[in-house]
Amino acid sequence: ERTRLEALRTAESVTPDGRKVEIAGNIGMPGEAAQVLAQGGEGIGLFRSEFLYMNRGEAPSEEEQFEAYRQVAEAMDGRPVIVRTLDVGGDKGIPYLGLPHEENPFLGYRAIRVCLDQRELFAAQLRAILRASHYGKLRVMFPMIATVEEVRAAKRALEEAKQALRREGTPFDEGIEVGIMIEVPAAAVIADRLAQEVDFFSIGTNDLVQYTLACDRLNERIRHLYQPLNPSVLRLVKMVIDGAHAHGKWVGMCGELAGDPRATAILLGLGLDEFSMSAGSILRVRDVVRKTRYEDAKSLARRALEADTEADVLKLVEI
Ligand code: PEP
Ligand code: MG
Questions:
Q1: What is the ipTM of this complex?
Q2: Distance CA 124, CA 269 (A)
Q3: From residue 62, how far is each of 68, 170, 176, 240 by CA, in Å?
Q4: For 114-124, how does the pLDDT look when each residue is reduced to its tens digit (9 = 90+)?
Q5: Where is the PEP-utilising enzyme C-terminal domain (predicted)?
Q6: Which of 5, 112, 168, 254 lies most in the core, judged by the most C-beta atoms within 10 Å?
Q7: Which residues sit with their C-beta closer than 6 Å to ligand 1?
Q8: Is the pTM here over 0.90, yes or no?
């Protein structure tokens, strides 16, 4: 079985009837790009940049970040790399940022909310990402977007960083794609509007599931309610994909669900364009893609959307 999967490392991620998707890897530190490549990843769908900021006394400098992003861009050798801007707060505390103690940290001061408030911190990161975009195919992605105003404010900050680099004559990729994570139900519901603001979406199911079912992703006591394949979540995923495709934009997924082989056929059938996961899941998901006819996946997805419960969805995909 292992050797059969190994053979898929250089195979295309395509269904027998020709639907092609991209299978990419998630990383936290630059060195992990090698593992994604070793498993046949076609890109980096999520570089969790917050790991560069953790376990230290102060924020990494623009220069240090530039080196980290450039390292990944170069390692991936022209394959796409999505750098997610700083996603702190919630379960990820960083002492030197002075994040307040909050009653509801997952509903509080986190991610893009912090970056739009701490402008210098944000600007340094955006400059570093832009500068590194000269050395490979980088994309930039904003986390935890809930409203159109937030995307517009984040894009303005990016535009200001670009202007400053142009004035200095520092090269960057003028065509760099800009995307947002869809991990707040509000964003999923207005996906058709958000799609007009960006080049792509990536669905963060880890947070989307917890917010949709009002179920803290870390609370063991209510674990039974944390249901990534609940029809409520699948219906939101459908809204996101349909909203993006209506405006010619592509949609990825970088939450854990993207790497769950039980979900692959359904996500394929809903029209997902890119799947990003930990390196160790890539070959198993590619295997499912290569065995699933797109036409069958679409009818499976339709049945999943009509199911009553997550258990019923799981029965549809029992392998
Ligand atoms: C997600 O929420 O699905 C996601 C990918 O982001 P994180 O797990 O880093 O919050
Ligand atoms: Mg998240």
A1: 0.99
A2: 40
A3: 10, 14, 19, 33
A4: 999 999 999 99
A5: 4-292
A6: 254
A7: 46, 48, 87, 183, 204-207, 254-255
A8: yes
Let me know how long the chain is: 319
Write the residue with the smallest CA distance to atom 4 of ligand 1.
204
Spatial separation of the C-alpha atoms in residues 142 and 82, rounded to whole Å: 10
Q: Known binder of ligand: residue 70?
A: no
Task: Tell me the β-bridge partners of 81.
Answer: 44, 138
Residue nearest (by alpha carbon) to ligand 1 atom 9: 48
Q: What does the alpha-carbon distance between residue 220 and residue 193 come to, in Å, rounded to a whole number?
A: 35
Q: Where are the alpha helices (DSSP H) in the chain?
A: 2-6, 33-38, 62-76, 112-115, 119-132, 148-168, 185-189, 191-194, 205-212, 231-245, 261-270, 282-291, 294-306, 310-317
User: Counting runs of H as helices and runs of E as strands, what totals does the chain give?
Assistant: 14, 8
CA 208 and chain centroid, separation: 12
Tokens 């030197």 belong to which residue? 96
d(CA 129, CA 67): 10
Contacting residues for 315 by C-beta, under 8 A, at least 6 apart: none
Task: Provide the token pair at 101.
Answer: 């103690």
Q: Catalytic residue numbers?
A: 254
pLDDT score recorded for residue 100: 85
CA–centroid distance, 215 to ligand 2, in Å, is 14
- For residue 319, is pLDDT > 70? no
Among the listed residues 287, 282, 285, the one whose alpha carbon sits nearest the alpha carbon of residue 267:
285
State how far the Cα of 202 lies from the Cα of 212, in Å rounded to an integer. 17
Residue 2 assigned ligand-binding role:
no
Q: For residue 13, which of 40, 31, 36 has the smallest C-alpha distance?
A: 40
CA gap 284, 134 in Å, rounded: 33
